[in-house]
Amino acid sequence: MIISPSIASANQLCLEKEVRRIHNSYEDLHIDIEDGNFIPNVTFGMKTIKALRSITNVPFSFHLMVKNPDSYLKDIFELNPSIVFVHVESIDYISEFIHRVNAQGIKCGLAFNPTTPVEPYKYLLNQVDGVLILTSEPDGKEQIFIPEMVDKIRMVRVFNQKVNLWADGAINENKLELLKSIGVSHVVMGRQIFHTGSYNATIES
Questions:
Q1: Residue of 28, 32, 35, 129 marked catalytic
Q2: Rounded Cα distance, 156 and 154, in Å
Q3: What is the mean pLDDT of residues 136-150?
Q4: pLDDT for 2-48, tens place per residue?
């Protein structure tokens, strides 16, 4: 199981230093783009992300938590993304978006808020390379892991045996073995990495 550090949890006053400190320990760095509309928070503009690309060659996985994800694609395509996740709640014609990303030779994934059921979108699962399940809500306080999301992840695996499963939200070391046991291949972690200094990049079988 691969751990992908969420740069949004790094010390924003020392962002370059934080990224340089960990980037050699991971094969992927996770970039949450939040626009203050789809989600009531703002993270990075493209200028900052491009500056981060200039200091590391580690691929970026992008999580677009935005109202208009299409408007970000042109810039993202230039930044060596490992995968681009789009929220199913943010666009009407998801297959078209997937095609636009794949046409650039880039992997595309679907992201789901905790309240969004997976079943209506199961027809799309064979078109994507990953499914990201938010395991907490951005509640403006200390985020809390939602146990019911474990069943939601299991449901994705029932619908599709091959797609990579990602989990993101309030995940600590105590949750890693459980998530690995249900087939999660990638875990996004922020506070546990940047606030505690835990830099183990993979969980062995």
A1: 32
A2: 5
A3: 84
A4: 999 999 999 999 999 999 999 999 999 999 999 999 998 889 999 99
Residue 32 annotated as catalytic: yes
Q: Give the domain CATH number at 11.
A: 3.20.20.70
Q: Does residue 163 form part of some domain? A: yes
Domain hosting residue 95, numbered range = 2-194
Q: Which is nearest to 15 in space by CA: 69, 54, 57?
A: 54
Find the catalytic residue in 28, 35, 129, 168: 168
Instruction: Respond yes or no: is residue 35 known to be catalytic.
Output: no
Q: Provide the domain count of the chain.
A: 1
Is 145 a domain residue?
yes
> Has residue 150 been placed in a domain?
yes
